[in-house]
Write a structure and sequence with these properties.
mainly alpha; 2 domains; three-stranded antiparallel beta sheet; binds FE2/S2 (inorganic) cluster; MerR-type_HTH_dom; metal-binding; DNA-binding
């Protein structure tokens, strides 16, 4: 038995164009929620369709699930309005632009490395981006290793 506005996991999967296992995965990551009816069957609110669509778009744009969740968690309701989606897409567009700019810069810096192989702390723009070692004065330096990059 299903109430109006409720969807089964199979219905959501079919309408959203994702596998049932994907929905379960999103749920374990806290991106979507469901509840159990009296017969212990999983039910979703119809608004989950928009939410899943947004998650898919964000994933295609290269955003990690943790980042997607952080953004979705800022919204007051599980049902995402058109205005909220507009705002989210604007933020994600800006993030994408920044990533593209950084990758373009990295690619351009890499041009000088092709056929080189020195990986010099002093001369290689990949090892010493923006010549940050020059700001630390003369003499030997070590670059900090950032595991987040
Ligand atoms: S490897 Fe030589 S400049 Fe980057």
């Amino acid at each position: 038995m299903k109430n109006v506005g409720e969807m089964t996991v199979g219905e959501v999967a079919k309408r959203a164009g994702v596998a049932v296992s994907t929905l379960h995965f999103y749920e374990t990551k806290g991106l979507i929620t469901s509840w159990r009816n009296a017969g212990n069957q999983r039910r979703y609110d119809r608004s989950v369709l928009r939410r899943v669509s947004i998650i898919r778009v964000a994933q295609q744009a290269g955003l990690p699930l943790s980042e997607i969740k952080a953004h979705l968690d800022t919204l007051p309701n599980k049902a995402i309005s058109i205005a909220e989606w507009r705002e989210l897409s604007r933020e994600w567009r800006d993030m994408l632009t920044e990533r593209i700019d950084n990758l373009t810069k990295l690619r351009d810096q890499m041009d000088g490395c092709i056929g080189c192989g020195c990986l010099s702390l002093r001369d290689c723009p990949l090892r010493n981006p923006d010549d940050i070692l020059a700001k630390e004065g003369a003499g030997p330096h070590f670059l900090p290793i950032d595991d987040q990059l």
